[in-house]
Amino acid sequence: MKTETLVLRKDQERRLLAGHCWIYSNEVDTRLTPLKGLQPGQPVIIRGDHERWIGHGYVNPHSLICARLVSRDPAQPLTPALWLKRIHAALSLRERLYRHPFYRLIFGEGDGLPGLIVDRYGDLLAVQITTAGMERVQGELLAALEQVLRPTAILLRNDSSVRLLEGLEQGVEVILGDPADPLTLIENDLEFLVSPMSGQKTGWFFDQAENRARLARYGVGRRVLDVFSYIGAWGIRAAALGAEQVLCIDSSATALARVEANAAHNGVSDRVQVRQGDAFALLRELRDAGERFDTLILDPPALIKRRKDEAEGTQAYLRLNRLGMELLEPGGLLVTSSCSFHMGREAFTRTVQQAARRAGLTLQLLETGQQGPDHPVHPAIPETAYLKTLFCRVLPEF
Predict the structure, then answer these.
(1) Which of 5, 256, 310, 389 is surrounded by the most beta carbons within 10 Å?
(2) Which residue numbers are catalytic?
(3) What is the 3-state secondary structure (H, E, C) of the chain?
(4) What are the structural domains, with CATH classification, of the chain?
């Protein structure tokens, strides 16, 4: 496909020169480079006002983010050599960080490959392509991954709703091998049965692994409540740390069945129970029944998916945290998270504090966490810093 030139309007390159890689349609000089003349995924040379060099990227004229900058080196266009270079760089980081080959291998913009997510489950690679630009070079990317990692199986998990925004079809496809389902994953010396082919996202949430490991320093007490438990990563960790009773809540019966399987697999099934239903309703039931817990874990899906949902989503986080805190013993541990990019860290902390005040409780913030280092944050791209996790002590009001 022919490489065209994309020219930006005057003074629109500042964010890119500072390190960001997204270009919005209203930043393009459509008089010089009409977007309607470009094809989704087409490679482009990006220039600023007065022909200033910006870099190599790709375009999608039908998306609000109409282009993404991939390479700032004039001599390094979007070729297989670039994919190999970036994959090698990403792998070298993960091999320094992890004893076992279970992690996010490629984190889009954080690894210089916008539109590409790769999760590694041993010899299986679960690949997500979310942009037309990466879709165009899918074959090159898969070949590069095979060359670098020599996996026995590659799975395309292209069922993300983000693809619809790019005009791409959704689907799940096995590209290489015969993936085991479920397969065994190791996290912090525990083993979990996961399903990359059918689970949420690619079957596991690697981004919380570092935060789950932090539970050990605080002690979890006798009773633990894990809300939005999915397949038990937090709850089973708590049981392994000595909790006598762990209750895992989720709306999915399939996920809770896997919680029970994972509890048995790790020898803690006698201490782990499950309950299916709406989290808000079940929290109210537990509160009204006088139940109390020493540790509460709140790890919901994004409650603010779009900026226009910010007010409603903030209220949801407020209700959720208040209900949860009302179930804690005095001095209990609250581990609460938000993966909503549109709620910043300060706003989330403020919301949790407001929840404590409305419940007549005092909050002590002990530690804050973010996504693990296999989800590297690009300092110039705030969108890559999405996960907030607060470790708090909850006390009577004083």
Answers:
(1) 389
(2) 339
(3) CCCEEEEECCCCCHHHHCCCCEEEHHHECCCCCCHHHCCCCCEEEEECHHHCEEEEEEECCCCCEEEEEEECCCCCCCCHHHHHHHHHHHHHHHHHHCCCCEEEEEEHHHHCCCCEEEEEECCEEEEEECCHHHHHCHHHHHHHHHHHHCCCEEEEEECCCHHHHCCCCCEEEEEECCCCCCEEEEECCEEEEECCCCCCCCCCCHHHHHHHHHHHHHCCCCEEEEECCCCCHHHHHHHHCCCCEEEEEECCHHHHHHHHHHHHHCCCHHHEEEEECCHHHHHHHHHHCCCCEEEEEECCCCCCCCHHHHHHHHHHHHHHHHHHHCCEEEEEEEEEEECCCCCCHHHHHHHHHHHHHHCCEEEEEEEEECCCCCCCCCCCCHHHCCCEEEEEEEEECC
(4) 4-71 (2.30.130.10), 80-181 (3.30.750.80), 205-396 (3.40.50.150)
